[in-house]
Amino acid sequence: MDRDVLLLGIAAVLAGLTATLAMLGIAYSPFVFLAALPTGAAAYFLWYQASGRLKEDMRSRAAGRRSARGAGEGAPGGDSRFAREARARMGDGGRVGPRGADGRGARTRGRGPTGGPAMNANSGMPPGDARRTLGVDADASGSEVKAAYRDRVKETHPDSGGDEEEFKRVNRAYETLKGD
């Protein structure tokens, strides 16, 4: 609240400066009038922010985009080729996270370590396979698992010339062992 009062005070000072510059521009030189334009714009934008109208407008625009997306006019992530391919790879229409009991997405946010859907503690990989994938012993500590994971990710990351399927397998292995 104190921030809004401060912004309103600064906006009032800028509005007064704008009025003074406009009067001087009319009386002496039109070039002084040009200096009044940016100060007037600054005063307006500060008032717009402090009055809360900016926040209201941003929320209504976001709500409009969400309703348009729900009506099929847009898609999560946009309509670029990359976004369409990413949604196709996910195979779930862009939903993030596991499904709830009602069949809809139980979680709407949360991403795993690779930027893909978040995984729960049971990633579907047996702990023995996960240890072999990361190259750690059965009695490895959490920090050893993490260090092995980081090394394997560097080797298998697709951006570094690695295999995408092996990279996914390394991530599943880490998700399995991370909970232990």
UniProtKB/TrEMBL annotation:
Residues 129-180 form the J domain. Gene3D superfamilies: DnaJ domain. Keywords: Chaperone, Membrane, Transmembrane, Transmembrane helix. This is J domain-containing protein. It comes from Halobaculum magnesiiphilum. Residues 59-146 are annotated as: Disordered. Residues 81-92 have a biased composition (Basic and acidic residues). It holds the Pfam family DnaJ. One of its GO terms (cellular component) is cytoplasm. The chain crosses the membrane at residues 32-50. InterPro entries: DnaJ_domain (IPR001623), J_dom_sf (IPR036869).
